[in-house]
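Much of our argument rests on the idea that a fold can be written as discrete symbols. In the encoding step, the backbone of a single protein was reduced to a row of integers, each denoting a local shape. We regard such an encoding as a compact summary of how the chain folds. The record that follows shows the chain in one-letter code together with its fold in token form:
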Amino acid sequence: MNILKRTAYILVMCFIFGSPTAMAQMKWNSAYKAYVDQYKDLAIEQMLRYNIPASITLAQGLLESAAGRSDLTRAGNNHFGIKCHGWTGRRVYHDDDARGECFRAYDNARQSYEDHSRFLAKQSRYARLFDHKRTDYRSWAHGLKACGYATNPQYATKLIQIIELYNLNQYDRATSFDRFMARHASTDKPAPDGSIHVIKFYNKNYYVMAKTGDTFAELSRETGISARKLARYNERGKKDVLANGDVIYLKKKQKRAEKQFRRTPHIVRAGESMYSIAQLYGIRLKSLYKMNHLQPDYEIQVGDRLRVR
């Protein structure tokens, strides 16, 4: 291949697939993974209702919202860059193809995901997308671009890259989802850095890790669980200011730790308290005292051996 032909070939391939540099820059991103963990059940729920691949929904959400960190998402919970055409609800304005364009605004991520599904399912321009199997994410990605969802010529390629890098197509074969996660994994008040409180599962419960300055009121707005309940579940005061790294459970804690700790006592370390140990294992403070035949005024010592199950 001579130099002219080789140059032309590279230019064509860059137009179709993106430049080699851009391709190399598509690397694993922890913020993207956190976004997937937070919203995968919501995407699966939407898939089972509207037959839109969960991988496509997640990839679009990641790309359009910058994993929930974009100005548009933080201002209006708009995860999919949907503009105001035919919209009568709340609006936000953002520079896109032109300055100060009108975008739809939502109270939370769940509303955004639902509107995205309806946007695709109810408009005739997207009808041909549903001729593709929901496991055929490549055809869906190219179909979205062909239908005019986005003006970026690399839109389909970017979606496919994201899906394959984060293995999102595994969710396209799902037949069920975690209803608690689908209901509560929606944020209407992102942290100042744009990150989200990722909901995790432990000891038959759900929890988030608090950030510096968090309050139960703020977590309530994010999770949809009342501040009073959150405080009660975690055996704290409703007005407590939370510390960075505090474990905050979203349901009432269990009476005992997981089965793996049946024959493994907890050895008390410096700086620990009965409360911190109870939070560590996701168990009620009262139960921890009871299991160890201790009175509430007992002061634990470094080296104490405590049953947690």
The chain has three domains: 25-177, 197-249, 259-306. The chain is about 40% helix and 5% strand. Residues 1-24 have pLDDT under 50 and may be disordered. Residues 30-50 form the longest helix (21 residues).
